[in-house]
Amino acid sequence: MSKALLALESVSLRLHGNAILDKVDLSVQPGEIVTLIGPNGAGKTSLVRIVLGLLKADSGSVKRKSRLRIGYMPQKLQVDATLPLTVLRFLMLAPRVKRPAALEALEEVGAGHLALRPLQQVSGGELQRILLARALLRKPHLLVLDEPVQGVDVNGQIELYELITRLRDRYGCGVLMVSHDLHLVMSTTNTVVCLNRHVCCSGRPEQVSLDPAFVALFGEQASALAIYNHHHDHDHDLHGEVVETPAGHQHGPNCKHA
Amino acid sequence: MPEFLIYALVAGLGLALVAGPLGSFVVWRRMAYFGDTLSHSALLGIAMGILLDINLTVAVTAGCVLLAVLLVVMQNRQWLASDTLLGILAHSTLSLGLVVLALTDNVRIDLMAYLFGDLLAISTGDLGWMLGGVAVVSVLLALLWRRLLAVTVHEELARVEGQPVTAIHMALMLLIAIVIAVAMKIVGVLLITSLLIIPPAAAQRHARTPEQMAIGASVLGCLAVLGGLGMSWNLDTPAGPSIVVCAAALFMLVLTVPRRA
How far is A35 from chain B (nearest CA, A)? Predict the structure, then answer.
C-alpha cells in the first residue's frame, strides 16, 4: 500500500448540512484501474473533487504520492459559442504544452483529424477523446476521468474504454474513473468501488460469460464488456439511506456504516 | 489640429486598443452585466475621490476593485442569483454616488461629463493617467493572456493543471477596473460597457482564433473612436455617445458581411 498513488481513509464530507460522503476509503495503485460506480447523488463527483484537491474533506485523510501529477478529464466542457477556439488551441492551453506535443496527444487518442476543427463543432464522443488528450498532456501518474463515456453510444463507449486501457498499459498510470452505469464496465477494470455515500462494496469485476447474441452484436469488441456482478447485501431507500433487509443487514468487508 | 482634439484622439485610441482584448473576455465569460455594475459604481468612486481629495482615476480604480471583490464574495455565498445581486449593486452605487455628489455642495462638478464622458476636455494630467492605465492593462493582458484563456475555457481543469485561478480572477477584475477608470472620462460611466462589448461582438463573426477576435475588436474600436470624434467635431454632437453610435453602426455593418466558408 505504501506505493499507492492515492490513499483516502475514512473520508467524510457534509455540504449544506447533508452528509455527502461517509467514511469512504479508496486507493489507487500505479497501473490500476479503479471504477467508481453508483447512482445519481451517491457522491461520486464529490469524491473525485476531493481526490483532485478541488474540495476539502471534513474529516479523514487524503494522501497523495509526493509530486503526484494528475491528468483530469472533466465531466463536461461548455465553451461559450463566441470564443473561436480550435481543438489544437484548446490542448495548447495546458501549461507548457507546445504544438507538436498537442498534435501527438491528439493522434494518440485517435482524434488527429480534429486538430483544426472549432471546439464547439465536435461530437460528444470526439469531445471525450479531446479531453482525454488534454489529460494525457500532463504526463500523469494518475488519470482521473469523470464519466468518460457520457453521451457516447454503446460502440463508442467500448472504444473509449479500450482506449483508456491501452493508455494505462502504455504509460503505466493509475486510473480512477466514474461511471454511473452498473453493468457496463470494462473487463480490465481492476477494482470496482460501489459508492452510495458510503462504500457499499468493492472488489474485482467478474468476467462476463459471452452470450452468443451479444457477440453477434458487438463482434470482437464484446470481450471488452463485463458485467460487474456483486452481491449487494443491503437496500437503499430513495434518500440513499441503508434499509435493513428482512434477513438482517450483512456488512461487507468495506462497509463502514454502523 | 487643435491640441484638445489630439489629446482626445490619443486617449480614445489607447482605450480602444485595450478594450478589444479585455472586452473579448467580458464577452466569452458573459460578464457584460458585471462590467455594467462596476462602471455604474464608478460614480461612487468619483464622489469618494472628491470627498477625500485624491486623484479621481485612482479613486475610481480602487472603488471598482473593492466592489468587484465584494461581488465575488457575495456571489460565492449564493443567497441571491447573480443578476439580481448585480442589479442591486449597479443602481444603488450609482444612486449613492449621485446623492453624495449632491451633498458636497462646495464643489461644482459637471455631472453630465461623468455620466456620458467629456473626451474633448481632457487635460495633460488626465492623458498621463489614462496612458499609464492603458500601458499597465496591455502589459498585464499580454503576460496573462494564455492563463486567462485557460481559466475562461474550464476553471477546474485549469486549477487541476496548477493555474492560480483565484489570482487570475482577481487580475481580470483589476484590469476591468482600470479600463473603467480610463474610459470614464471618454464615454462616461453609463456607456463604458458598450466599448467593451460591441467591438468584440462585431469582431467575433469573422475571427478564427481568440487573438483574431481580440485584435479585430481593437481595430473596430479604433475606427469607432475616429468616426465618433469626426462626428462630434463636424456635427457638434457629444463625443462619448457619438463613439458608441459609430461602434454600433460598425457592428451592424459587420453583420451584413457574409461569413467566410
Answer: 20
Residues of B in contact with A70 (CB under 8 A): 160
* Chain A residues in contact with B210 (beta carbon < 8 A): 83-85, 89
Determine how many CB atoms are found less than 10 A away from the CB of residue A172.
10
B152 vs A contacts (CB less than 8 Å): 83
Each residue's pLDDT tens digit, A173-221: 999 999 866 566 656 678 888 788 888 777 776 533 333 433 333 334 4
Per DSSP bridges, beta strands A18-28 and A33-37 are unpaired
Considering only alpha carbons, which residue of chain A is nearest residue B154? A77
Using a CB–CB cutoff of 8 Å, tell me whether A94 touches chain B: yes
Q: Which residue range is the domain that position B56 belongs to?
A: 3-190
Select the residue from A85, A99, A143 to test the B interface by mutation, using most B Cβ atoms within 10 A: A85
A184 close contact with B: CB closer than 8 A = no
The domain tally of chain B equals 1
- What is the predicted ipTM? 0.87
Return the pLDDT at A235: 57
Q: Which of the residues B153, B155, B212 would you substitute to probe the A interface, choosing the one with the greatest number of A C-beta atoms within 10 Å? A: B153
- B115: CATH: 1.10.3470.10
- Please give the interface size between A and B, counted as residue pairs whose CB atoms are below 8 Å apart: 63
Residue B64 counted as domain residue: yes
Dihedral sign computed on CA atoms, order A209, A214, A219, A223: negative
Chain B residue at shortest CA distance from A73: B157
Within-domain flag for B236: no
Q: Do the domain assignments include residue B240?
A: no
